[in-house]
Amino acid sequence: MTMSEAQLVDLVINWVRSNHRPGNSPNGNISPDTDLIATGMLDSFGFIDLIMFIESQSGCKIDLTNIDPSEFCIVKGLCRIFMGNRLNDLASIRTR
Amino acid sequence: MFKFLETPRHPPQQSEPLLRSTASQQRAARPGVATTTSRKNNSLIQGFWESAERFPCRDALVVDNTNLSYRELRDRAAAIAQTILDQERDAFPLAAVLASRSATAYASVLGILGAGKGYVPLNPKFPIERTRKMLIFSGCRVLVAGREVLGQLGRLLSEIDGSLTVILPDLTDAAELRAMLPKHRFVSSREMLHGEGLAFHTEVDSSAIAYLLFTSGTTGEPKGVPIHHSNVRPYIEYIANRYEVSERDRFSQQFDLTFDLSLHDMFVCWERGACLFCVPEKSLMLPAKFIRDCELTMWFSVPSVVALLSKMRLLEPRCFPSLRFSVFCGEPLAARHAQHWQEAAPNSIVENLYGPTETTIAISHYRWNPSSSPEECLNGIVPIGWVFPGQQFRIVNQQGSRSREAGELCLAGAQVTDGYWNNPEATRRQFVRFRETGETSWYRTGDLVKRGENGCLYYLGRIDQQVKIRGYRVELQEIEVLLRKASGAEQVVAVPWPVTDGSADGVVAFLCGASNLDDLYILKRCREALPDYMVPRNIYRLEEMPLNDNGKIDRKKLLKQLEGA
């Protein structure tokens, strides 16, 4: 089924809750406005894992060539960028 | 055989202030005028001051979307330097800076050096407990703090005995801090001196410390490495010449100030009047756009950055046409990453640098040649190459005799410091003499290397439990000491994991025996005391630890278990 930006936000939040750096930020504290890097929830490698997870779920690659890093690290910014910068046509994004 | 050195002592030193009032020093009438005497060594900041004189209007620094000319940066540094000297009641050798990726951070480094002190960088991203330890171990009585750390000062300073002078270039009114922490002295920006009418000296006593950095220590406490001006000047001069740095160059500044590779960024750049571009925190992960937007000519980072950019398809051929030099250091450089970067930056010379903190930034280099280098690599890793001219190396076996085979790399020469900061035991262990080389002091790196037929050095691994995590040097024992305290477990092992192309991304821990504490609690304790890259990603509980034939914990078997998980 096709996924909206809001559904993608939920997908990202659920992934971060399962994969964030242990001992940092209680699970309940993540929201669409959370900065994943500034809060320490993810390190750079974890962040790349998240992007690869989104790509694997969607079957689409994201173009990061000209992204604004300040927006990119925030959950809803990441999702907005992903919806707008897919490299190949997004026929559908599979939900879990 | 090893012969242990006498313990070097680091008594409080008072080098001649680099920055003096004109009243006391009439012969240099204008700021920026360097004076020379033959009895002194050149200071680390000599190049900056000379560039400020030659290129006062050129940009020295771009940070937070702000351009600072050499004159502006020098003036900010002079204000900090004069304030430090004005506050000085008793002589002291070091002052600390707690700031990051801000104009104040760089001005503070220069200001401390300008006052004739060595600087001790502290990292706002580190846990406060660790920063406090570093501040106490260093013995600093003066701290310069930036805007970005004002919220940390209460917790940091409340448990420090004695009185610190805290200089706050970004805070106009320090009344609130004074009320909260009455035993410390605070100097707000309004109370700082302006640094006007000062003449700069660019020479220091040969024993003066330029900076003191802390590395991970096996005992569970950070270990201080003092680097003298006489150690670091040869590096700056050699590299600036080797890379033919000019005022037209545009340098990346990617490393935190607590990482000694930041010295290369700052002082090689300023040596020749070039401009330093501070990579914003959020661009550190994927700096491709930053490199292009700033049209950088000089890139310096750990190889992990290449891995991340490559993974995210951000290393397209010819995507970095402006780069003249691309330099990597801090961890093994995979051949495929060197090749990939070379294709992305075709106008750039790619170099792999190697060097422990004790030998000042880097002490050997290997220049990548796209045609011949792939065949010269060992196990897919780029060689560490040749030791810089004028520096010395020996490869020794376990008995300390010269080895023609693989062995521990020992280093000596002007770049090598003389011991650890107030740590005679560690100094005795790592700094040794050999009978054949008389009084020469050699630093035992703990790195296992071998020498090729053409003299090229190849890195093979470690002889101990030290690892590199994303370029940061980590003693696994330091993590294990803390884990043992936090968990109460009988046996504790930390291993680097996952490892790709010889570089570790993180650490995981194994616990065994009598620990009922929750993993999250244990990791929280770790996070309170260790920097992010040292905190285990996972904790695994075992019924019993695997042992090798010698009855020691079999770390290789633990890694195999992870591979199979």
Overview of the molecule:
The complex is a heterodimer of chains A (96) and B (565). With 96 residues, chain A is mostly helical. Chain A has one domain (5-84): Non-ribosomal Peptide Synthetase Peptidyl Carrier Protein, Chain A, CATH 1.10.1200.10. Chain A is built from 4 helices and no strands. Residues 89-96 of chain A have low confidence and may be disordered. With 565 residues, chain B is an alpha/beta fold. In chain B, 27% of the residues lie in helices and 25% in strands.
Question: How would you sum up this structure in a few lines?
Answer:
The complex is a heterodimer of chains A (96) and B (565). Chain A is an all-alpha fold and 96 residues long.
What spatial form of chain A do the alpha-carbon principal axes imply? globular
CATH top level assignment of chain A: Mainly Alpha
How many individual domains of chain B?
Answer: 3
CATH superfamily of chain A: ACP-like
| CATH 4th-level superfamily of the largest domain in chain B | ANL, N-terminal domain
Beta-strand residue fraction of chain A:
under 5%
**Number of continuous helical runs of chain B:** 16
